[in-house]
Structures are given as structure tokens and as C-alpha cells.
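User: Some background: our group keeps a shared notebook of sequences we're curious about, and every so often someone picks one and asks for a predicted structure to add to the entry. Today it's my turn. The entry only has the sequence so far, pasted here. Could you supply the structure so I can complete it?
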Amino acid sequence: MSLDTEEVIRIAYLARLGIDKNEHPGYARNLSDILSFVEALNAVDTQGVEPLAHPVEASQRLRRDEVSECDQRERFQAVAPKVEAGLYLVPKVIE
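Assistant: Of course. Here's the predicted structure to add to the notebook entry:
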């Protein structure tokens, strides 16, 4: 698929992008190349190919579920501006 400068102007308007007039041909060429690449990808037969969550099928190394730090809540809340019942109080930002 090939885009012309008029289509680039329309796309830029819809995306609310400001593009100089002398850059329109370059954008048209780049966008056309991208659309051609997408067409080539769509032409590939993917029948029977299972979708992947990640391209590398590797299992995650898991760490032991054990406490590695001590509880410092009292220390942190001692320097907080406002605390109540173990919770940090913050100003209301949404009315």
C-alpha cells in the first residue's frame, strides 16, 4: 500500500501532529514502507501456530518465599507528616 502526501496530511491532522510541508514526502515514504511490511507479515501462513506469551519459552527462576528484611514501619512512619492507625494520610486530590 502506498500513501501520498494528501493522506499523510489527513493522518497528521487526525493524530494532531504538526508536520512541515517539506517533510510530507518522507513521511509518506516511511509510512508506506511500514504498511508494506505489515502486508508482508499478514501474508505469512500462521495456521496452526499457537500464540506465545513470550518468544522465549523459559521458566522463571523462583526465590524462596522467606522474609529478607525486618519490619521498619514504625521508623518510616515516625518521619511521615501524618499517620493514623498505621496508615499514611495524604491530602485529597479528587473531589
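Suggested note for the entry: Residues 24-42 form the longest helix (19 residues). Residues 7 and 28 are 8 Å apart (CA to CA).
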